[in-house]
User: Fold this.
Amino acid sequence: MITLILASLAGNPAASAASAGSDPFYAYSGSAPLSSFAPGAVLKTRTIPYHVVGIPLPLQVVQLLYRSTGPLGQPTANVTSVVKPPVAPATPKAVSYQSFYDSLNPEDGPSRAIAGDVRIPGLIANFESVFLVPWLTQGYTVLFPDTEGQTADFAAGPEYGMNTLDSIRAADQSPATGLTKDTKVGAIGYSGGAIATGWAAQLAPAYAPDVNRNLVGAAEGGVLANPRKNLDYVSGTPVWAGALAMALIGAGRAYDIDLTPYLNSQGLALYNKLQNSSIIDALPQTSGITWQKLVKPEYASSPESIPVFVDTIKKITMLGAASPTVPMLIGQGANGILEGTPGNKPGIGAGDGVMVTADVRALARQFCADGTTVQYNQYNLLSHVGTAAAWLPLALTWLDGRFAGKAAPDNCAQIPR
Assistant:
């Protein structure tokens, strides 16, 4: 969701270019049922140069189509991009970087931009390329999964997490990557990338204990801890209200829930218009949107008037889900007024503009209570975008410490309620 910094490009026709369109690499075409493969099994492999805005760089990428799991437990196929360092170390090590590409369009996944596709939403992955440089120069292999899956289920956190974990499994299994089943891995992501990183860390002990064994830690910032509270927090705001509309579509799509019977004419029009939108497209079109403007009068009092919606929201809520067993670094801003979101809504309080700070603290305290080693950093003067800039250098250093085998810092006792 940090894509606010790129949103101004959405109205610039010169910034647009033709999409690479449908790519057969993304479709599983084998004769064996997809369900016959274990999660993380490699289905296809190709090696390509890394592209930035369509320009190939002298950097090798192994792209893998692999088997993963959808939010309803169904077998799925997904793609990850494994970026190999210019000089490989004697003992391989890897960082799984989860993108904040936030989109309802499968073609906006980072693997498309890395393969040379040039689209406005692809600028997000292009921008994120600079984050990879410190790791690559130190000999890390960088995994760059399409966390939202091939149906782009925006905000469906458990699916993000399983796609991330199975990306690591696939990279470890592929002889083309240079990694092994014993390769140590760190995970990192901000905003939309934090959805994937956090859920991967929380799901790993049960869903992927083989991956969890090799995780050295996970760093997340700008965290979507409690989507129900976020709905109220961003409602009616000039910048981030569009995240509400996108989450309705993405969560409904992921869990096969039809929310259209509850929408009014304005809600239906917006629902249809945003079906394949990136957050770059959506934010300018949805300024000031509220729940009441989207639903029929009989459901306007609160989302709780639609039980199926509430049940779906619970499924994508980090709070109350299992806690990680690996060290966590959590960063969160608290000055959302800088991005137009007030911090005085009753029962919500301060946030970074799109994420609710108190809920992120509650999540950190839950982890602490369950025995997770946590370093929580709160940036009281910064909003969502500003916190990313302050948090990332700390996250890089923190992950280096985990790979070096240093004791993870813990400030659980200092985290306020």
Remarks:
- Residues 1-21 have pLDDT under 50 and may be disordered.
- The chain is about 35% helix and 15% strand.
- The first strand starts at residue 42 and ends at 52.
